[in-house]
Amino acid sequence: MIKNRFPFVITFLFLVLGNCYAQKNERPNVIIVITDDQGYGDLGITGNPHVKTPVIDAFGNASIRFNNFYVSPVCAPTRSSLMTGRYSLRTGMRDTYNGGATMASNEVTIAEMLKQADYKTGVFGKWHLGDNYPSRPNDQGFDESLIHLAGGMGQVGDFTTYFQGDRSYFDPVLWHNNQKESYVGYCSDIFTDNAINFIEENKDTPFFCYLSFNAPHTPLQVPDSYYQMYKDIDPSKGFENDDRPFLEMSTKDKEDARKVYAMVSNIDDNLGKLFQKLKDLKIEKNTLVIFMTDNGPQQTRYIAGMRGRKGSVFQGGVRVPFYLKYPKLTKKDKDIETLAAHLDILPTLAQLCDVPLPKDRIIDGKSLVPLLKGEKVSWEDRSMFFYWTRRYPELYNNIAFQKGGYKLVGMTDYDAEIEDFEFFNLRKDPYEQNNIVTKKRKKALELKDEFDKTYKELITSENLINPQKIIVGSEHENPITLNRNDAGGERGIWAKEEVFGKWDVRILSGIYNVKFKFIKPIEKGGRMYLETKGIINQKKNNEDTIDILEMKNISLSAMDCDLIPFYMIKGKKIFPFWIELEKIRENVK
């Protein structure tokens, strides 16, 4: 009998041991929720008495809360650092438009990293790291993508919603796996519903879901049922017993706050649906969920006493809420005061998901796992660099360096003396009200020396010096539409008509049909020009009051160049709103 049972015993042991091994090495599902222009003070859990966020508040109260968590002052740099674990300048990201919001395709994203372990990956909402091949989500590791273009719906770069005006957030045309599709409903609802569908479809395999809301970014559009919740409140009241700094709010600021709070409450309801789905699918325990925002608020409103807002290197522009919940790791909530940042998300996920980090590049972030586990770590020597100006960093202007509880802020000239800087002890002065640069001159100089070294290193990054080119004529995107968000040229190109603009491209040899779309109809009698590296194709326009002009059968050689289009009439050069290039056949040699 013992002899007969032996194979069954061995089989049973193998099954038990195999099951234990599988459970030990079971990788978590990952959900990152990030909102757009939602400041630190736009939550009930952070002390706002007006905004209704019961779902996020409950999630935060049950999570590990990083209370000194930092991002970049604006959205695109934050998202590139989140995706790569690297300072944004290393990734080639230097702006939110002006041709500087395209991340280098050689960067390794969280999605690409997790694909090593066969994760299914999906992004829903805002991408803002490149709208053309090879920088789109599906080019950078995502299996499923549903996004709007550029930095915001209704903005010039998102040409499929721009002309909808004050209805751009409703019934939008979005980009599903690089193809235009029409949707019905409000954008935040659409992104959440599709994220939930993605989770349902991939519940039996590890997945990474990046739910990246474009709300509450401008334009401030929200379903009326949510606006009615706030239409009668005064967002400037309710802080009379709070001794923290509070800025005066104009009439417009107050109305903007009402709309922002309405948009945030809509997000809160959507997250309620998402979290309930995790429970219904019985995958909540093994799903790691992060909630964060991408920078400070764009408008003036409650920000928990902090100085500055979006675009500023002061605390109000760069300190955001960050809540992480992973029941399988720890069921207890706790507060962590250690300095942490968007740079840390990728290395943290690498450790928790048991996948290797990229070995061929600098990873600026640190894994937060020791902090999550309550291990004693000393990060006193950790530093953090912040900057924000258009196009490229401007030396000592809106630039900061933080280390060991101290923060050096430059709002001055490139050749400024140390006394021209502001210096704060954040542990004693978290609201950055008391400049101690003269009292702590030696310490300030120490930080400035480290800052200078960091600055010089970052501005010589290969991807910044040789930025990613948009590839024209590739089989991966043909036809290709070049939008205003990615156009360089004059500063503030945005929606201007008479402005010099260009796109930095790599053209593949071929015969092309090219369409030029204008914001307003153009007059008859002018000439359309297309310049490519000293080669000019031009054609007279004999049609009146048209807003799309076409040039067919243009022969273009393989080249890297500035692609420069303009319509010349009566001494004016009018830059197109977008251009479409379709490669119709190869060049005949």
Topology (elements, then pairings):
Blueprint: H1 2-24, E1 29-35, H2 54-61, E2 64-66, E3 69-70, H3 75-84, H4 110-115, E4 120-126, E5 144-148, E6 173-176, E7 179-182, H5 187-201, E8 207-212, H6 224-227, H7 251-280, E9 287-293, H8 315-318, E10 322-325, E11 334-336, E12 340-341, H9 345-352, H10 369-372, E13 383-387, E14 397-403, E15 406-411, E16 422-425, H11 441-458, H12 462-465, E17 470-472, E18 480-482, E19 488-489, E20 501-507, E21 510-522, E22 527-532, E23 535-540, E24 546-556, E25 559-569, E26 572-574, E27 578-585
Parallel strand pairs: 1-8, 1-9, 2-11, 3-12, 4-5, 4-8, 17-20
Antiparallel strand pairs: 2-10, 5-6, 6-7, 9-10, 13-14, 14-15, 15-16, 18-27, 19-20, 20-25, 21-24, 21-27, 22-23, 22-25, 25-26
Structure description:
By secondary structure, the protein is α+β, with helices and mostly antiparallel strands. It folds into three domains: about 350 residues, Alkaline Phosphatase, subunit A; about 80 residues, Arylsulfatase, C-terminal domain (2-Layer Sandwich); about 120 residues, Sandwich (Jelly Rolls), CATH 2.60.120.260. The chain is built from twelve helices and 27 strands. The strands form five sheets. A ten-stranded mixed β-sheet has the order 7-6-5-4-8-1-9-10-2-11. Strands 17, 19, 20, 22, 23, 25 and 26 form a seven-stranded mixed β-sheet that branches. Strand 22 and strand 23 form a beta hairpin. Helix 5 packs parallel to helix 7. The chain is globular and about 70 Å long. The termini are far apart.
